[in-house]
Design goal:
This protein is α+β, with helices and mostly antiparallel strands. It has one domain. It contains 4 helices and 5 strands. A 5-stranded antiparallel sheet has the order 1-2-3-4-5. The longest helix is centred in the N-terminal third of the chain and has 13 residues, at 2-14.
Length: 112
């Protein structure tokens, strides 16, 4: 019960702020995910592809159900992190360049 209260308070505190990940050796320290409002602003300002269209495209290519897409900034590049539900019940993550719509290898992004 206490854990639930702490998590609720943390979620309320983060509100509309971008989610920033702690830096760890060899991790994606240069990554920050944006809120929905910030995503809309950046899609317009930087002429990025629409997230829902790319999410549907990725779901079709992987024969999975679309769950979620969020815009993140990885070392000065915009990337959509997408979650898809496969028929076997597994959730898979797909990373797509927000400008070009091409898939991005998550490991190569982390190594930069």
């Amino acid at each position: 019960m206490t854990t639930l209260l702490i998590l609720s308070a943390l979620a309320a505190t983060l509100g509309g702020h971008p989610v920033r990940f702690a830096a760890a050796p060899g991790s994606d320290a240069g990554r920050a995910c944006l809120s929905a409002a910030e995503t809309r602003e950046n899609v317009s300002a930087h002429h990025l592809r629409e997230p829902m269209a790319l999410l549907r495209e990725a779901a079709s290519q992987t024969r999975a159900e679309p769950l979620n897409a969020r815009l993140c900034r990885w070392n000065e590049q915009f990337v959509y992190e997408m979650s898809l539900l496969r028929r076997d019940g597994r959730v898979v993550r797909v990373f797509v360049d927000a400008a070009s719509g091409s898939r991005v290898n998550a490991r190569s992004k982390q190594e930069r």
